[in-house]
Amino acid sequence: GKNYVVARIPGDGIGPEVIGETSRILEAAGRKHGFSLTWADYPFGADHYLKTGEILPASAVEEMGSMDALLLGAVGDPRVKPGILERGILLTIRFHFDQYVNLRPAKSYPRVPLPVAPKGGKDLDTLVVRENTEDFYIGIGSRTEKGSADFSLDTKRGLYSLEGTLRGSFSGGVEGAFQLGVASEPAVRRVVAYGCRAAKARGEDKITLASKSNALPQIYGFWEDIAQDEAARHGMGLGIVNVDAMCYHLVRTPDLYGVVVAPNMFGDIVSDLLAGLAGGLGVAAGADIGDGLSMFEPIHGSAPDIAGTGKANPIAAILTGALLLEHIGERTAAKAVEDSLTAFLAESAPGDLPVEFGGQGTTRAVGEAILKRIQ
Ligand code: NAD
Ligand code: IPM
Ligand code: MN
User: Which UniProt keywords apply (predicted)?
Assistant: First the structure.
């Protein structure tokens, strides 16, 4: 059978715990469905950084470029200043490989308790298509140094450059900071186009854009205009909803939307909200898709509050593994993983369900139970 080389960054906190279960399940799916996986393991994360000072060497990124996919747990650790590992590993990979779509399905599964009952029945099935390369994430920003109100900013960075160095200050010696957000036509078009194709595949005739042009008319007014045009090209209807109202509607009617397309920051927030509405961060899978290397990572973080306790729900990571299998072309195996997981949830005793759902099922026990159904 075929062999796939998959880069693996378990990362921090519960990352290694959930990636351990996922890896065993993907290997079992391979044995059953006639392919094998070779893991290329990378130690990047807090421990490695604190020991060596290294975050993510360019040589590793280069190597990963020739692999079939990347599986990542989560990065971020209370011992490390926020942003160092998150920007240095996660965002660097998303940007380097131009992974322009962050796909975040919010689906309900059997017996997963939902905080709000869907209005149209018991199922929830929304797909968040998050723009993944722009907005306030581009990394152009500055803050005043302590004791000085001046900021200066080297704007010649990455894909987006203003000319020269921007200098400024807050009046009266006030400390402060700023961060730039951008939207470019190609980036908006490609993610909206992706959303339209996804909606079509789901048999839907409209997508919904999370926006906020009332407060930020330049960037999100631009988004709305381009999205309108791109959706029309695909024969798709476009609903435009201010993101604050979208959050409000979602907590009252969690199954209101089919495909939600969102700029980077709103997509980050709305996808955590939808994860909560679908039963928890422990069931929310994710994929960063580009034309080159794609990365597969659950949407949750390293959850330092439960790391090492066995309470981490591995289901999000396992479903993320299923997305990985689908991406590399192993559709039958991907479906087998999702089916085994669904069967586990539907058939097991209440006490065996993950802790997140009110059971006593540890990360390991839940992983094992799903694995057994594949073999
Ligand atoms: P988080 O997603 O790690 O945790 C939020 C809450 O959800 C916590 O109470 C946690 O216990 C719970 N939770 C998350 N995953 C769970 C699971 N699988 N099972 C059961 N409960 C789960 O978000 P946070 O607390 O904001 O961030 C913690 C760290 O993770 C920070 O360093 C942050 O920067 C980082 N982070 C990384 C990623 C990533 O690598 N993709 C994503 C988000 C946050
Ligand atoms: C996510 C995370 C990241 C993001 C952080 C850790 C940089 O919250 O993957 O959702 O904001 O994209
Ligand atoms: Mn997030």
Answer: Manganese, Metal-binding, NAD, Oxidoreductase
